[in-house]
Amino acid sequence: MLANIEETKDMFISVQVINEFCSAMRRQKTSSLIIKKYIFEIINSITVLPINTDNTIKALEIVDIYKLSWYDSLLIATALDYNCTAFYSEDLQHNQIIEGKMKVINPLL
User: Fold this and answer.
1) In the chain, how many domains are there?
2) What is the pTM of this model?
């Protein structure tokens, strides 16, 4: 799945994204064995960022400031906590700058 990504050392993924991936795959009736295979491929290729209570508090601020959904705000708060400078999402406004330091990039454009 990640074989086409040349460099993953500077890439991060939130544990929340992995959980959302599992939920989507389960809705598609994908077996747990297959889902686990994908998860292990992800966690062995990309650094997984945990979510903590500070991220939750920051997400509440982001919801109010940027008027984003709760789950998008939690992802952004986690990325900011780990000093990410780019945030890839097809759901958010392309080229938006969050807190003057993190740029939203729509990879589908």
Assistant:
1) 1
2) 0.82
56-96 pLDDT, tens digit per residue, is 999 999 999 999 999 999 999 999 999 999 999 999 999 99
- Cβ within 8 Å of residue 94, ≥6 positions away: 104, 105, 106, 109
In a domain, 1, yes or no: no
Q: 76 lies in which domain range?
A: 12-105
User: Does some domain include residue 92?
Assistant: yes
Please check whether residue 6 lies inside any domain of the structure. no
Query: Residue 5 has what DSSP assignment?
Result: -
Q: Looking at the domain assignment, is residue 63 inside a domain?
A: yes
Q: What is the 3-state secondary structure (H, E, C) of 67-104?
A: CCCHHHHHHHHHHHHCCCCEEECCCCCCCCEECCCEEE
